[in-house]
């Protein structure tokens, strides 16, 4: 009887598995069409200097403008394409789109650095640096130093040397790098020690928890200390309110990004947001322990 049950649940599993596979297949097909039909968008989330109220850059974040479903967030479609060749095509599109936007903003006299998220697989794909160089040639009005790549650690330590080679070559083109979600991977410290990155991005999970959880606060402090010791910059993600901003500032982290300043914005709203933010900035009160 146990055997029979086992067989039944196996059948059930197979059917569910088939349905999931088919749904994934359909989504992949829809995403290929989305790329061809120009349905992807980049939104831009401001990064600010929490000490001075200056806007220091923008992070490009992909969305899918679906004709029926509206704006679809990346968590709902990036996992489906990341193991497919489409992931590389979408990654190339993101880079090209960010450079087109930078060109437009440069012409309008509002050039801010833009950072682009790069999947580790994209970074290590053959010809990545050559395509990057070609894209930069096609956008001569954009100083390469305005383009930053945000690298998410993959967990495979043997990739480190390959990643290092690519970053060194891209560095020669003038680009800057940040380690995204720093502290959440398996080998963050090896990445910090071995890669030519300018900036550590403290993961938003630690940042959000730091007001209540002493462990999160200790991790945030440790990352700020590491950045100082290695002479790197540090930015906090997920800064949702002024209290967190004041706390981070008191700990020595000046750069921040989060809903407390702005949500990711469609590009046409960015220049007005920047002007409004700068005009309405109020200095943060230094955070007082135990208050
Ligand atoms: P990420 O690079 O760590 O980006 C930060 C994410 O946190 C964004 O979500 C952003 O909207 C969200 N966020 C920002 N501030 C706050 C806050 O104060 N509170 C909360 N709760 N969330 C905040 P999004 O846009 O959904 O992107 C999720 C992830 O998808 C990104 O995490 C990144 O890993 C990936 N991603 C986004 N765009 C691209 C892309 O163009 N290429 C690649 N390869 N990955 C991308
Ligand atoms: Mg990022
Ligand atoms: Mg992040
Ligand atoms: Mg993330």
TrEMBL record:
<protein>
    <submittedName>
        <fullName>EAL domain-containing protein</fullName>
    </submittedName>
</protein>
<feature type="domain" description="EAL">
    <location>
        <begin position="24"/>
        <end position="278"/>
    </location>
</feature>
């Amino acid at each position: 009887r146990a055997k029979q049950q086992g067989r039944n649940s196996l059948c059930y599993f197979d059917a569910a598995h088939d349905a999931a596979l088919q749904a994934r297949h359909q989504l992949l097909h829809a995403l290929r069409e989305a790329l061809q039909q120009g349905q992807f968008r980049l939104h831009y989330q401001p990064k600010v200097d929490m000490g001075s109220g200056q806007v220091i850059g923008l992070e490009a974040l992909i969305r899918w403008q679906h004709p029926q479903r509206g704006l679809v967030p990346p968590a709902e479609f990036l996992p489906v394409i990341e193991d497919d060749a489409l992931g590389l095509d979408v990654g190339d599109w993101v880079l090209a789109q960010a450079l087109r936007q930078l060109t437009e903003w440069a012409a309008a006299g509002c050039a801010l650095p833009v950072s682009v998220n790069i999947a580790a697989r994209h970074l290590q794909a053959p010809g990545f640096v050559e395509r990057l160089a070609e894209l930069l040639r096609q956008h001569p009005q954009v100083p390469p130093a305005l383009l930053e790549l945000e690298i998410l650690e993959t967990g495979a330590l043997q990739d480190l040397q390959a990643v290092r080679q690519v970053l060194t070559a891209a560095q020669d083109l003038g680009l800057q790098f940040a380690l995204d979600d720093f502290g959440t991977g398996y080998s963050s410290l090896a990445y910090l020690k071995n890669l030519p990155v300018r900036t550590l991005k403290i993961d938003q999970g630690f940042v959000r928890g730091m007001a209540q959880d002493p462990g999160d606060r200790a991790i945030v402090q440790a990352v700020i200390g590491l950045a100082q010791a290695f002479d790197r910059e540090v930015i906090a993600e997920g800064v949702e309110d002024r209290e967190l901003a004041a706390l981070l500032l008191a700990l020595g982290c000046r750069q921040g990004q989060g809903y407390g300043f702005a949500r990711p914005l469609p590009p046409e709203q960015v220049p007005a947001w920047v002007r409004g933010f700068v005009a309405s900035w109020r200095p943060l009160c230094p955070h007082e322990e135990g208050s």
